[in-house]
Amino acid sequence: MPVPRDSSSQSGASPAIGPAEIAALVEPDRVHRRAYTDRAVFDLEMARIFGRAWIFVAHASQIPRPNDLIRTRLGLHDVLATRDGDGRVHVVGNRCTHRGTTLCSVERASAASLVCPYHAWTFGLDGTLRSVPHRKSMPDSFDIADPRLTLFRAPRVADYRGFVFASLAADGPGLEEFLGDMTEALDNLVDRAPDGEIFQDGGIFRLEYRGNWKLHHENANDTMHPGFVHESSVNAAREDGRDYAEPVYDEHQAHTQLLSNGFSVREWQSLGLKGLANGHSYMDGFYSQGVLSPDRDDPLSRDYRAALEAAKGRAAADAILGMDRFNNLIWPNLNINAQYQQIRIVQPVAPDRTIVQAMCFRLGGAPEGMFHRAVRFLTNLSSPASMIFADDVEIFEKVQAGLADGSREWLDQSRGHDAPVDAGAGGGGAGNGRLASPGTSELPIRGQFRAWLDYMTA
Ligand code: FES
Ligand SMILES: [Fe+2]
Fold this sequence. Notes:
This protein has 458 residues and is of the alpha+beta class.
């Protein structure tokens, strides 16, 4: 089937694109560059993927008290996740219904109402219009209770163990059905707290790159890149002559993190990559392989394990700490790293612009040092000045530049395509929908594009 010509990636109006054209962009082992560069494709992604899937918007601990709110994005919408005076959580548009002004310009606030900075129309945190100045000058037909004057509201908002997701679709699979077995990753992050609660803390890194949003997800479980993309920091860590043998784990975390990208291809190959329905995926066995093993016997780890065992018992603590998964990707916008209490949120802006937010959590009931370890990990891995993430971002921009040029039509995603795939693997037993492949396979990328096609053509 011929692939239609590009529409501009920057012009405002973009022609509609039909299911047959979309289907022609994805083959089993390659994908057309238009999936990354074309404004019409991007617009359809926003309607069909970010307009239908469950999108992570906030953690409950970011809006702990009545009248708390946090600003975030739902697809291309600027939205606020709010907790009203009765404790209920809403996701409302950050756009005044009078003339469209942005209501809240800060990232986080506590306020009983939202007052527009232009003409002071005032809204409740549930989005309803509460008051309008100089009401008597409005026409008799003006009805403050008119639903058209209520802020845009996400039709569905749901919470899984404190992780708040919203969907722009009024109907569709429920949140737990959408998450499938990825609930295990969220459970594991929360269960690592001895007292069962986690709290987002310590600020949020925010980085914008000049590349498509899918590039971030494709890179997450691509084990063939670290040895090349992160070579300079791996080499620097290797050349560091200091003796890090003593188990003072926290102080040497940056060193061990940098080294972990230096696995041999054989070591990467021995990891398991798991692909699930809806484009979700994760990497199995990363920490047990190397320097980031959870079995490190340093004083902080011992204290933490003791607190967890005291709260939950030895067997449960073993199971919780033994879950060894890296980059739990809940496609299309959340990436979880439970071992170090990290998440990243991916927010598309344009075909060639994406925002990534990265943050970490405090484990309730754990020694304070565990939070410092999480902050250190976050800073090392995900800050704009990270020696690791900065490399990845540079590559995303190089890929985007290469695709925009137009001389290369197709991206290859065939690695491991012919290798046997183990269906039902991964701990949940046969029939759980998990596909497993050796660590160097591009199975997660192919899985993302299967989900992409399902959303885009349904
Ligand atoms: S634009 Fe908000 S009150 Fe006028
Ligand atoms: Fe990387």
